[in-house]
Amino acid sequence: MASSPTLRRRRLSAQLHMLRLESGLTAEAAAREAKAKRPDRPWSAAKVVRIENREWKRLQSDDVLTLLDVYKVTDKRERDAFVRLALEASQSGWWVGYRDILGTGAYVDLETEASRIRTYQALAIPGLLQTEEYARAIIRGGGVTDDREIERRVEARMMRQHRLSEPDAPHLWAVVDEAAFHRIPAELRAEQLRHLIDVQRPTLRVQVLPYEAGLHAGTSGSFVLLDFSGDPSVVYLEHSLSGLFPEDPAEVEHYATVFDVLQAQALSVDESLAWMGDLLRQTEGTARA
After folding, report:
1. Cross-referenced Pfam families, in alphabetical order (predicted)?
2. Domain 5-89: which CATH class?
């Protein structure tokens, strides 16, 4: 399975936070005890809070072991697991080479280790399902004009798609609004539709949300739900310059419910395949006319 340093960072910080709460210590008290055990290391309540809030890039194994001492974690296997988690959380993924266009790469990082991806897209085909030419057109349509940057963005998007061909690929379920299909440039629509039809399999499904659905549960905008084996699910809300990751369990559950409703409002998988087939034939017929 592809490794996600971001996911491990989330897991490590959450586990250390839980250990502190179970120990009945405040951040200030934990820092005071850590300083007493390791006076050669800088410790403060702010440092403990930063660790628990994932506001770090590389967490030293010595600091992890010191906190485990404070929280009275003595089992060697458990301590080794924490150290290993800290080392894995400090690694870099392939996307680091694209930091200039992916920013922190937080979403791509989490995507690499998701066991299931559920997405609703209102205006565009999901990035994991885009053809190269459509990806290039949509990036250019988003205002990017530098040819080199466009090609790097397309390259990164195509590399993300390799995850879907791996043996442990995540289950991908996409609900796509009909508007997204009609916004595909006419000269690229046939190729993109053929791709969407061809890639479908039991673990990769696309449903079309037709105009006939009227006002629906997704009118507030697109979103992605990432599910993991052994870790809490994450919601991703993309914006033009950045993205948000709501973490409150109630918010995650809200979007999961919205996705379930959208699935029910959309055409079935078989109906969606037939709908895309009809649109493909119309597109090809128009091109021949």
Report:
1. DUF5753, HTH_31
2. mainly alpha
